[in-house]
Amino acid sequence: MSETIQTGNKQMLPGHALEVDTIILTDCLTALKTLPDSCVDLVITSPPYADNRKKTYKGIPINQYVGWFLPISNELKRILKPEGSFVLNIKERTASGERQTYVLELILEMRKQGWLWTEEYIWHKKNCYPGKWPNRFRDAWERCLHFTKQKKFKMFQQAVMVPMGDWAHKRLEKLSDTDRIRDESNSLSGFGKNVSNWLGKKYVYPTNVLHLATECSNRNHSAAFPVSLPAWFIRLFTEQGDVVLDPFIGSGTTALACIELNRHYIGIELMEDYYRLALEAVAKHRGLVAAVRRGNGEHKRASNSDKQMPPRLL
């Protein structure tokens, strides 16, 4: 957990003050340059997609996207702690009948900046938008690219474990002799399994595919992702009291997840309409979570100011 000293709505880090639990109304790159080195534990964001939603974010041309994002990723690398993570939710768009390659090009250029492309998670959108195209099917997934600054980073896998499911009861009821040893695959792949290792377990580690519905409440934002998406990565890569940054926070989704999970947040938003939406959403959500805490009797263990210290997970 981050070692910090709370003073009002600021926490004191060695050598400087960092304002947290705040959303900044300005250009992303301008705001990032004001933040100190190695001050955040996790960056998670979904930047404007190339040439999409021009009415809201004006859009970045496909052939300029990599050059536009690299100064931002360079600043993110500077302010991210050495053991921190950066999760980038992004998806290539199609143009002239084919998928474009700017996301792949961006990954390669970020590696030149010193980023490690540690993993790629897939967000499967269970309720993707309907549509029909002559050369492809509905777009039901997006990338969540995981970058780190070093090979050793903070990761809490047990925080995202999932129930085993009903299949386990029947499968583990009667084990054969083969089930009790490491049975290698007949395909000679080198893979194998010992089914008996599942005995007594209620939870297992998930895969790198996240099956989550898209945002259905339409919070007056053209591309809001669900709270469950940042919440999953916040659980995986941070501890309570850590600082999470979303440089394109939109209507405030990442901040809402931080409030639920007792993390601090810093958001940046260029569009004033979305900035105001985010402030309203944060105020409402903080009150809701505080009320639930009181109903659960958690207020007895809370700090003196629910407004300054976000409550625990609902």
Commentary on this structure:
This protein is an alpha/beta fold and 314 residues long. The chain folds into 2 domains: 5-161 and 206-301, Vaccinia Virus protein VP39 (Rossmann fold, 3-Layer(aba) Sandwich), CATH 3.40.50; 162-204, no CATH class. Helices cover 26% and strands 24% of the residues. It has helices spanning 28-32, 54-57, 65-79, 102-112, 167-171, 228-237, 253-260, 272-295, and strands spanning 5-7, 10-13, 16-19, 22-25, 40-45, 80-90, 94-95, 98-99, 116-125, 141-148, 162-163, 183-184, 192-193, 203-204, 209-212, 243-246, 264-269. A hairpin with a 2-residue loop joins strand 7 and strand 8. Helix 6 packs across helix 7 (253-260). It is globular.
Please render the helix and strand layout as text:
Elements: E1 5-7, E2 10-13, E3 16-19, E4 22-25, H1 28-32, E5 40-45, H2 54-57, H3 65-79, E6 80-90, E7 94-95, E8 98-99, H4 102-112, E9 116-125, E10 141-148, E11 162-163, H5 167-171, E12 183-184, E13 192-193, E14 203-204, E15 209-212, H6 228-237, E16 243-246, H7 253-260, E17 264-269, H8 272-295
Parallel strand pairs: 4-17, 5-6, 5-16, 9-15, 16-17
Antiparallel strand pairs: 1-2, 2-3, 6-10, 7-8, 9-10, 11-14, 12-13
Helix pairs in contact: 3-4, 6-7, 7-8
